[in-house]
């Protein structure tokens, strides 16, 4: 079985992904939140580090948090 060749220049870190999303949405997005996005493909460097596919991050949409009123 052959391994698929991964082009690392197509992937970005969580911090860079958060920066791109912050610029796109005009509000702060934390790197921890990028890790929770569904549908974003990633490449694991080791057990703690991941790189995220840049095209998936650019296509991602983050809804603004709804503040509910207490009764």
Please outline the helices and strands.
Layout lengths: L10 E2 L1 H12 L5 H4 L7 E3 L5 E4 H6 L12
Antiparallel strand pairs: 1-3, 2-3
Polypeptide structure, described:
The protein is α+β, with helices and mostly antiparallel strands and 71 residues long. The protein has a domain at 13-46. It is 31% helix and 13% strand. It has helices spanning 14-25, 31-34, 54-59; strands at residues 11-12, 42-44, 50-53. Strands 1-3-2 form a 3-stranded antiparallel β-sheet. The longest helix has 12 residues, at 14-25. The chain is elongated, with a radius of gyration of 15 Å. The termini are far apart.
Features:
single chain; elongated; alpha+beta; 71 residues; 3 strands; 3-stranded antiparallel β-sheet
Helical amount: 25-40%
What is the overall pLDDT average?
87
Biggest sheet, open or closed, and with what strands and sense? 3 strands, antiparallel
Tally of DSSP helical segments: 3
Q: Widest sheet: strand order? A: 1-3-2
Radius of gyration: 15 Å
Q: Can you write the helix and strand succession as a string?
A: EHHEEH
Shape: elongated
The span between the termini is: 60 Å
* Beta strand count: 3
Class derived from helix and strand content: alpha+beta
> In percent, how much strand structure appears in the residues?
5-15%
Show unreliable segments.
none
């Amino acid at each position: 079985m052959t391994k698929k060749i991964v082009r690392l220049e197509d992937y970005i870190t969580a911090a860079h992904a958060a920066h791109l999303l912050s610029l796109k949405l005009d509000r702060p997005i934390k790197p921890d939140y990028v890790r929770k996005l569904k549908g974003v493909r990633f490449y694991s460097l080791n057990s703690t580090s991941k790189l995220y596919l840049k095209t998936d991050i650019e296509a991602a949409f983050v809804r603004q948090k709804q503040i509910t009123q207490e009764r």
